[in-house]
């Protein structure tokens, strides 16, 4: 006990204890308390940032999932086994071709009017305009061989689409997406950007023909995939001479499957459309003496045409062109002709599923980090409160000891200590 009292006396000698207490007080005020405050502020910022990112990731996941669903809906697939479903879409082409042929037959009156107009204005006895359209109306969507030779083939050896389906995994976009993250505006469902470029130009896909496919207008589905240099593209060469009436290569394709004959059909439609548009312009203009004399000597089919009847014909042509050049039909044509395109289109849809799942995982990670920040803040706040309390006690003790040395005169420590 005497030894301990001796130690205390030595410690109090020359006010060593006051120097150490002052050092502890300064260290708490300048470093310990600000450090704990900064850590707590950082936790609060982390909570706010994580909460914000959680909402953003949730909205992005919902948007991507909705885009995936809209893409699948536009393509007419469920979005489970994507490759297999895309290849199955080819089975719809005969139905589309049948509808196109049926609608083309409704243009008989317009074809007759155009031929009469051509013969009248050119003083020709016969007119061979819109030959492909006329052939389709009379014979239907026959094989290219039958159109070229005038004979039905004894057998048809149509090229097969070779697509690897073994790697076609089942896609299940995450069902854990928080759909309450806010209202998402997806825009017009008919103009979804799929990340694949469907601008079919003259340097793109090689269908084995010297003329490039021209799909005209119609809805645009942008998939951001270049069709150029597709190593898996099917290139079909037409055999001009077939053995014993066997249709092979492009000869085995139907007229609407064959890019060359399909373009001829579209050219006929565009020719008729231009004719109707020009006739509408002429009808709307005020007639002069020359035009009136021409109309009086024109065939009856030309004289009875009105702005209303020509407008209906124009609508019919535009509907037929749109049906054949629409976004989905472009996909069907490319799917049937290019295995590589099927792979890229399937991959682009898979990417949307993976991105949606990644956003969901990121959202979960933000929730976890937010919980960790809340827990860390709970642990730091009692420490801060405790060090504040001990610092205040130390302040009072130092003030008391200094006061004793100066005959109990009041002593107050001023400065940052009063703002802790």
Can you characterise this structure?
The chain is mainly alpha-helical. It is 61% helix and 3% strand. The chain has 13 helices and 4 strands. A two-stranded parallel ribbon has the order 1-4. It has a two-stranded parallel ribbon with strand order 2-3. Helix 2 (16-75) packs antiparallel against helix 13 (339-405) and helix 6 (131-139) crosses helix 8. The radius of gyration is 41 Å and the shape is elongated. Residues 177-223 and 225-242 have low confidence and may be disordered.
Q: In percent, how helical is the residue content?
A: 55-70%
Largest β sheet strand count, sense and barrel closure: 2 strands, parallel
Number of E-type strands:
4
How large is the share of residues in beta strands?
under 5%
Arithmetic mean of pLDDT: 78
Q: Which stretches are low in confidence, meaning pLDDT under 50 for 5 or more residues running?
A: 177-223, 225-242
Rg: 41 Å
SS class: mainly alpha
Order of strands, main sheet, comes to 1-4
Distance between the termini: 39 Å
C-alpha geometry: elongated
Written as H for each helix and E for each strand, in order along the chain, the element string is: HHHHHHHEEEEHHHHHH
- Total of helices: 13
Give the helix/strand layout.
Layout: H1 2-12, H2 16-75, H3 82-88, H4 93-105, H5 108-122, H6 131-139, H7 144-149, E1 155-157, E2 193-195, E3 222-223, E4 246-248, H8 259-284, H9 289-296, H10 300-303, H11 307-325, H12 327-337, H13 339-405
Parallel strand pairs: 1-4, 2-3
């Amino acid at each position: 006990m005497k030894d301990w009292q001796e130690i205390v006396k030595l410690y109090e000698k020359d006010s060593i204890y006051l120097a150490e207490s002052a050092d502890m007080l300064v260290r708490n005020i300048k470093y310990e308390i600000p450090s704990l405050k900064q850590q707590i502020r950082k936790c609060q910022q982390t909570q706010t940032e994580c909460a914000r990112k959680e909402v953003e990731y949730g909205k992005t996941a919902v948007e991507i999932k909705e885009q995936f669903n809209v893409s699948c809906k536009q393509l007419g697939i469920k979005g489970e086994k994507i490759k297999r479903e895309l290849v199955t879409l080819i089975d719809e082409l005969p139905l589309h071709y049948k509808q196109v042929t049926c609608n083309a037959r409704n243009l008989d009156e317009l074809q007759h009017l155009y031929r009469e107009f051509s013969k009248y204005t050119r003083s020709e006895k016969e007119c061979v305009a819109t030959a492909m359209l006329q052939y389709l109306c009379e014979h239907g969507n026959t094989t290219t061989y039958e159109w070229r030779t005038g004979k039905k083939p004894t057998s048809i050896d149509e090229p097969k689409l070779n697509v690897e389906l073994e790697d076609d995994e089942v896609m299940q976009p995450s069902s854990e997406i928080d759909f309450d993250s806010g209202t998402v505006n997806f825009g017009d469902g008919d103009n979804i950007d799929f990340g694949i470029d469907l601008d079919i130009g003259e340097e793109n896909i090689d269908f084995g023909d010297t003329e490039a496919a021209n799909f005209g207008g119609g809805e645009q589905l942008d998939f951001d995939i270049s069709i150029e240099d597709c190593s898996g593209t099917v290139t079909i060469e037409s055999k001009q001479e077939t053995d014993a009436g066997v249709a092979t290569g492009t000869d085995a394709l139907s007229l609407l499957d064959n890019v060359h004959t399909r373009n001829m059909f579209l050219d006929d439609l565009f020719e008729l459309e231009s004719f109707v548009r020009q006739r509408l312009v002429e009808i709307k203009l005020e007639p002069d003496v020359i035009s009136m004399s021409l109309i009086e000597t024109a065939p009856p089919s030309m004289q009875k045409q009105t702005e209303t009847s020509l407008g209906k014909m124009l609508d019919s042509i535009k509907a037929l062109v749109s049906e054949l050049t629409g976004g989905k039909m472009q996909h069907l044509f490319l799917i049937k002709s290019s295995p590589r395109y099927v792979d890229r289109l399937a991959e682009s849809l898979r990417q949307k599923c993976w991105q949606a799942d990644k956003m969901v995982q990121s959202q979960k990670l933000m929730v976890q980090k937010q919980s960790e920040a809340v827990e860390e803040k709970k642990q730091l706040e009692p420490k801060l409160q405790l060090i504040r309390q001990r610092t205040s006690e130390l302040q009072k003790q130092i003030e008391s000891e200094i006061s004793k040395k100066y005959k109990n005169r009041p002593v107050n420590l001023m400065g940052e200590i009063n703002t802790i």
